[in-house]
Amino acid sequence: MSTINVRPSRDAAGSAAYVLYGHGYKGRVKLLSGEPRTRAGSFAIRVAGDNTATPLAFVERAQALAGAHGRKNQLQSYVLAFSPDEFDVTKQEDLDRIRDVAVELAERMHSADFMVVVHADSAGKHGHAHVLVTNHDDLTGGSLQRYTAWKHGLRQLNDELMRDEGLQVLPDPEEPKPDWELRREAFKPGGFEQVLGDKVLAALIDSRSANQDAFEQVLAEHGVALAVTNRDGWSYKMRRDDNGKLGRKKASGLTTEFTAEGAQQIFDYHAQKGKKHGSTGTDGTGGRAASRYSDAGGLDLRARRRQAADREADECRRGAERVYQADGRGADEAPGSAVDLAAARAALDGIARRRHEDKAERDRKHSRRSRSAAQRERTREAAQRIVDEEVGPGSTVGIEDGPHGAGDDDLGFG
């Protein structure tokens, strides 16, 4: 079963850098440089008119369109999250399946550029996809109007897609509370709250944070302190970049994930995982869990040429204008090697060829239909001339269905 939520973004570069590389200013640098190693478990992109689209090209077009039309929001940012019981984030085929469902969702919602980034590194190990959609409808030329709120069609569309894909649907849907990855869009890009929240999340899902004391130690590594009072509950403090003063923000003012209750659920998860491996906060090899968001290039995945170009071609047939790039991994490769966007482009040659063949076949069928329609029209006109000669001009008796009308009736000539 899945939940879906959406929030507008005024900073396409910041949103893209975050979902691809994690928090921190270095994410923007990596975006600009085209760094191939990302934290994406699976990836797809479509940019109109660009068959070799990159994340930077996606961002630049979103910025240009917003600027040209005077729009504040450059993107609509969606998060499609699934239950851990439905998809196993340790299996590449499951991550690719999440990607495919997210792509289908993007295409059903809008005629617009989009980028899908699947994450496997959440605290609860639930697979989820970030779907960034440019705030520009390529058909109407206007901003996105549909499916920009949970209550206004988005939840219903998501449920419909889940049924079509044979996936579970929530029996009693409630609007999901936005977690930090979506909530961060509400704050000023690069501002105190956004930077603070990114650091708190990085510390919270660090595998060492199995209790409050350990969490505070990891927070300190990020330059953040936890303050606990009876009046305000949990708050977080950090030195501000703008004035050098110590800033403070209540946990509930950021997201419920960062409150004592929300954090405890994540602590319990880390503690349980640590017991399973025999040591708190480490995986079976004694290394830090792969769920750390603080590693900007956390999924160091070795990309290779797609072995499933035919599958990609089939996907392209579902949307003639879609440019679809997967991450280049085969099904036998486990997560842990880098998403090389350039390598995935090798499959595009085959896709383009098949698309050309499909178009040629459609053109042939259209030509045949056109010839058949012209022949029918000529036959109808000939029949009309016969009627005009026998019955009189203007009559259409018995010719609506052509020379072999329904029931093989004669023309009533007597």
TrEMBL record:
Q: Which Pfam families does the entry link to?
A: Relaxase
Recorded hits in InterPro entries, A to Z, give: Endonuclease_MobA/VirD2
Composition-biased stretches, type Basic and acidic residues, lie in 307-321, 351-364, 374-388
Domain MobA/VirD2-like nuclease: residue ranges: 49-167
Q: Where is the composition biased (Low complexity)?
A: 338-350
Instruction: Give the start-end ranges of region Disordered.
Output: 272-414
What highest taxon heads this organism's lineage?
Answer: Bacteria
Q: What is this protein called?
A: MobA/VirD2-like nuclease domain-containing protein
